[in-house]
Amino acid sequence: MRKTLLESLTHGSLTEPAPAPDEAALSELAAKVDRAAQARLGRSLAIREVDAGSCNGCELEIHALSNAFYDIERFGLRFVASPRHADVLLVTGPVTKNMRQALERTYNATPDPKWVVAVGGCAIDGGIFRGSYACVGGVSEAIPVDLHIKGCPPSPTDLLKGLLALLEHVGCKR
Amino acid sequence: MGILDSISHVHTASSHRPWPRAVVTEAGWQAAIDRLVEGRLTLLGFWGEPTAVHMAMLDGGSAEIAVVTYACTAGTFPSVASRHPPALRLERTIHDLFGLVPAAADDLRPWLDHGAWGKSYPLSDRNASRDVRPYQFLPAEGEALHQVAVGPVHAGIIEPGHFRFTANGEHVVRLEQWLGYTHKGIEQLMQGASLEAAAKLANRISGDSAVAYAFAFASAVEAALQIEAPRQATLLRALMAELERLANHLGDIGAICNDASFALMHAQTGILRERCLRAANVAFGHRLMMDVIVPGGVARDIAPDGVAALRALLAELRKVFPRLIELYDNTASLQDRTVTTGIVKAEYVRQFGAGGYVGRASGRNFDARRAMAYPPYDALSFEVPVLEAGDVNARVWIRIREVEQSAGLIEQILDQLGPGGFETALPAGTGHGACEGMALIEAFRGDVLVWLRLDGELRGERCHLRDASWFQWPLLETAIEGNIIADFPLCNKSFNCSYSGADL
Lengths: 174, 504
Description:
The complex is a heterodimer of chains A (174) and B (504). By secondary structure, chain A is an alpha/beta fold. Helices cover 38% and strands 13% of the residues of chain A. In chain A, β1, α4 and β2 form a beta-alpha-beta unit. In chain A, α2 crosses α7. Chain B is α+β, with helices and mostly antiparallel strands. In chain B, the strands form five sheets. Chain B has a five-stranded mixed sheet. The two termini of chain B are 35 Å apart.
């Protein structure tokens, strides 16, 4: 263990330079985010992830955001365990009918100001599960969405770009 | 003697491949259940159609597989679960989706149907409505017992499900799972879908097993159509399957340690996992390798710089991973949490036919890659690690050994890759009506079964996909007994069962 720890001190950092915030995301947010609320948050956002019926692909990439390459916490973005602690709900999946109520309750349990980010193709409009008897078909059918991040699943870099756009938008209005 | 020889049946389906399927009499159905109860056969799958139920069974000794079909002429079938518990959730699912009634069933509580679909029995033609009442958890009574309800929204970044713990102080006396939250109606979406659309769905049954499902789906289609993927394609399929296994095991080994507050391991294996996904992206253009395997072969050859990327990955892995194993093995605070925690009994693993590291950590020596010897594994050399302890530690060690085996397999495959066709053209139609195919492929968490029937135009008529988790989830309920609630995350992570794969 000592060797591993020491080596990690002498070797350069793996962490990659930050990607530029996604332009499309910035413009989507410009229309939606409440300015008065932004001032109160500063450059830090607490994220609660909600899987509303995804295949788990999006979760794998969201997990990757915390690895040494992306190191999401350096941006003031962190994942929290409860919606009560969250500013942002990061929602994946085509919103199954069996998850709809839980998603709504999680949304209601999140204090204002709050933002909802829909992650992945299914979360936008149900994706390949659209039209199923068991799916609502897109997060915005259940709760209001502020930002969509596309991809099946979106890569960690895509996720980071979208979240940085959110952070930028929240932070620059202070 | 074949499985079906001792089970009285009406006729054998002629278009079912590669293993036989027979329509059985009621006596035959009961005889099949007898074999399961006696432990002479293992339940591999159990699924419905509007007027029939099917059971796939495995003879572990001969690795022979057969499917028995019971025609539910009166909308009922003799309950399997009342005599063979591993069938229980599958039987409840059949009732939820088709409305077929297992006669003399002890437990007919809904499983996938939470009363939110707006209709009952969605895969049947019945228009009957069903009264779905608030879910009744099994009772646990006694002084000082209390219940802890967890989920469906969990504290971590994981899939949704509900766990109901009954505890005496910190000690769990009963855990009951209630899943179905990620039910997306995939089997209905498969009906009438083109092969292309159905393959896309198969890739998204469980994102961590995208390759394994695509592999199984493609193999089942090829079995039905009696075609073979080219050699180069089977090598690439196995290459992706091993890469997927590697990435998942690395991620999970770290995550298990992280649940014991040993974050260093999580950080280190997280780096290796990310390197796997990046190499996969270079080689196949997608980090999780979705939509690369298609019926008939693979959609594209490995990228020109893919081989170098994978060799670099193996070099890095060989350098770093042994140190991480040593770290795991020499950290007493970790061992304290994983050794003797969450033991799964060998008899349960046998009874449930649990696959993957859950089965192999409790002495069940089964791996579909070896037992079914499907190409290209029939020509590759690898070992299947098996341990007896059945605790969290044993499941970690099985994964460690499988990482090593996968690395060896990837190396062998890279040495064998060469130029060559990677896709066999599919026929325009089956030529003679419906045909049926089946495949059993080893995903990282165990064997995935795909059964399908294609119509004359190669559209899905009925497709059933069974994740290894069906037979592992119930064992997690047994593993936690007598442990403390605080050790549940460790037990759970060491299983890492799929929600999406089991809810479909």
